[in-house]
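User: Can you predict the 3D structure for this chain?
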Amino acid sequence: MSVAYGAGLSGGRRRFVGRSGVAAALVLAAFTVLYVAADSLVRASASVERTYRVQVATARVLQGLTDAETAQRGFLLTRRTDYLAPYEDGRISARRALTDVQDLLGGKIDARDRLRELAPLVDAKLTELEATVSLAREDRWREALETVHGGSGAQAMDAIRMIVSALQAAETELLAGRERRASMTALVLFGCTIASAAMLAWLLWVTLSRLERDIENEVAHRRAVERESEEQRAAREEREWLLEELKHRVKNSLQQIAGILRLQLHDAGGRTAREALANALRRIMAIARVHERLYEGDGPGIVDAGDVVRSICDELSAMLPNGAGIVVDASHVKMPIGMSIPLMLIVNELVTNACLHAAGPDGSGGVHVALEERSEAWALTVSDSGPGVGAGVRDGLGVTLVKRLARQLDAELQTRDVRRGHVVQLLVPREAA
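Assistant: Here is the predicted structure, written as structure tokens:
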């Protein structure tokens, strides 16, 4: 019996090591994809910012010349010297803006020809302005006005406007393409995050389920034996070590994923990316809450779902707008771990959606979350006192995830608008456990 017991334990260790290796490989691959997608998103955001800077700089060139020309005309027509200060400001602004445009577009082959045309035209316009102002300062007003009427300055301004319009049109086209690529990258990043969380949750559930069966068999055997041998005691300690090691590694893995998401959320430049990363972080934290309560239940694989619901809602109340209005009514409801993970993800999605979208325009409205154990089903109800969903609203990713998780639990999902607010109720049959 001792030999068989030791051999079974060695097999358990080999299975543990093998599953840990698979989990580590999958998590590493997911992190690699996340890093590449996040890096692409950062580069796309930088390109979008450069495009905006080009458009602002080109507009400043034109505005500076226009301001200088307006002040020049005012000085020539009224002979008032107070026009000379805005004239100098406009001339300096145009020079600086031209330098900025050259710095931003100097490395772009398709913009070099336009830049070679723009710089001499700006110089010619500024030279014409300076010449007329100099003549006027020497009281040669007639010659200054004749220079203006000669039309060279107007022709230069028309040409400058055409070149600036062409540069801005080209940058606008580039901006549209970069924004499309940034959106696609954000979607890829979000998909990889969800896939990583799903793989980790699945590996956690499968591994814990098998180890729990092994532990139950060990406890039954120990009660039947009055006296344990040294070999049996060592084998039991080894199993307990394996379980503690598994708990530690799963907890660290969840913390690492959450930490990476927080770093990416801090560095993300676009609103779409930030929302995707924030939603993914909340889903990871929902799984982490179930894992923290896993070994505090009444038996292997049993979780106090009411306690986890309160913990998730407490954390969401600090992370979400209108979160302070969350009211939780959840007694001590015992559920199997395999059902509690998808249920807690549903709680996370419904409460997040209520806090983000169900509040009134003035920020009023609260969210009520209830979890109760009935004779034939567990009932989860999330309601709010906001304006309701209304007609024509399309299902987003969160609603789609809720529906799929409900099908996984064989649960009935009911939604309805009431006089003030919206109610979502999920009925999970007890026989599904």
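The CA atoms of residues 151 and 157 lie 10 Å apart. Strands lie at 302-304, 326-330, 334-336, 367-373, 377-384, 412-418, 421-429.
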